[in-house]
From TrEMBL:
It holds the Pfam family IF-2. Keywords: GTP-binding, Initiation factor, Nucleotide-binding, Protein biosynthesis. Belongs to the TRAFAC class translation factor GTPase superfamily. Classic translation factor GTPase family. IF-2 subfamily. Residues 45-159 form the Translation initiation factor IF- domain. One of its GO terms (molecular function) is GTP binding. It comes from marine sediment metagenome. One of its GO terms (cellular component) is cytosol. This is Translation initiation factor IF- 2 domain-containing protein. PANTHER family: TR-TYPE G DOMAIN-CONTAINING PROTEIN, TRANSLATION INITIATION FACTOR IF-2-RELATED.
Length: 255
C-alpha cells in the first residue's frame, strides 16, 4: 500500500470505473459519501457545460445566465440575401444577450459549419439551402441546432421570439433516406416515374419527398408509387434501385 508517491512515480489505483483523462486532477476526500457528492456535483457541471444552444432552449439558458451571446453560422442561397439577414439578426440583441453572425456564406450547410458551431456553441441557420448528409449526421451526434427557412421574415421572427421565450414548439424534420435519379420513364397518361438508386436510408411509399436540382428545391410533394422490377413495394433500402412516382410532378432529370 503506497502512502506517498513522488512526481513521475507510477502507482496503481483501484476502484476507478473508467479511464481518467490525461492531466486530470485527483482529489482526496475523507470518505465515500463525500466522494459521491463530489462526483454528482461534477456531473451536473459537465451536463450544463455540454448543453447545446438551440432556439427552443435559448430563453431558458439566457434566464439561467448560461448564455451571454448567440453565435450564428448563416448559409444562404445567394450573396445578396446574407447582408439583410445579418443586419436584421444583429439588431435583435438585448442587454442580456448579444446576437452575432460569426460566419456566413452561400451554398449548402457543410461539416465545417457544424464544426464551427460546436466550437463556438452556436446554431446554424440556412436560408434557401440544403444540408449535406455528413453535416446532418455530425449535427445529430453533437446536438447542434440547424434551422432552415425560405422566408426572411419567418427567420428573423423565430430568433426574436426565441430571445423572448415566445417561440412555439417546432417540428423536427427527419430525413428517412436519399436517392439519386438515374433514369426517367414514361407511363402513358400517368406521366413519368423516376428510376432511382437509393444512396442512404430508405425510400417509402406515401412519405413526403423533396426533389433537389442544382442545389435548389425543385418540388415538394409525396411518393405516390414505389416499384421494384414489376412489384409494388412499401419501401426500398439503400443499395437498391427502384421506380418512384411523385404526386403532381413528372419533370425528372438524370442526376
Amino acid at each position: 500500500r503506497v502512502r506517498k508517491a513522488e512526481p513521475a512515480t507510477p502507482v496503481e489505483i483501484l476502484g476507478l470505473t473508467s479511464v481518467p483523462q490525461v492531466g486530470g486532477g485527483l482529489r482526496v476526500v475523507a470518505g465515500e459519501r463525500q466522494a459521491q457528492a463530489l462526483i454528482q456535483k461534477r456531473l451536473e457541471e459537465m451536463q450544463q457545460e455540454s448543453k447545446s444552444v438551440s432556439l427552443s432552449n435559448l430563453y431558458d439558458q439566457i434566464s439561467a445566465g448560461q448564455v451571454k451571446e448567440l453565435n450564428i453560422i448563416l448559409r444562404a442561397d445567394v450573396q445578396g440575401s446574407i447582408e439583410p439577414i445579418r443586419s436584421s439578426l444583429e439588431q435583435l440583441g438585448t442587454e442580456e444577450v448579444r446576437v452575432g453572425v460569426i460566419h456566413s456564406g452561400t451554398g449548402n450547410i457543410t461539416e465545417s459549419d457544424v464544426m464551427l458551431a460546436i466550437a463556438s456553441k452556436g446554431i446554424i441557420i440556412g436560408f434557401g439551402v440544403g444540408c449535406e448528409p455528413g453535416a446532418r449526421r455530425l449535427a445529430d451526434v453533437e446536438g447542434v441546432s440547424i434551422r432552415s427557412y425560405d422566408v426572411i421574415y419567418n427567420l428573423v421572427d423565430d430568433v426574436g421570439k426565441a430571445l423572448k421565450g415566445m417561440l412555439e414548439p417546432s417540428y423536427v424534420e427527419v430525413v428517412e433516406g436519399r436517392a439519386e435519379v438515374r433514369a426517367s420513364f414514361s407511363i402513358g397518361k400517368k406521366g413519368k416515374v423516376a428510376g432511382v438508386y437509393v444512396i442512404e436510408g430508405k425510400v417509402s411509399r406515401g412519405v413526403s419527398a423533396r426533389l433537389w436540382r442544382q442545389e435548389q428545391v425543385e418540388c415538394e410533394s409525396t411518393v405516390s408509387s414505389l416499384r421494384r422490377f414489376k412489384d409494388d413495394v412499401k419501401e426500398v433500402a439503400a443499395g437498391y434501385e427502384c421506380g418512384v412516382g411523385i404526386t403532381d410532378f413528372s419533370e425528372f432529370q438524370v442526376g
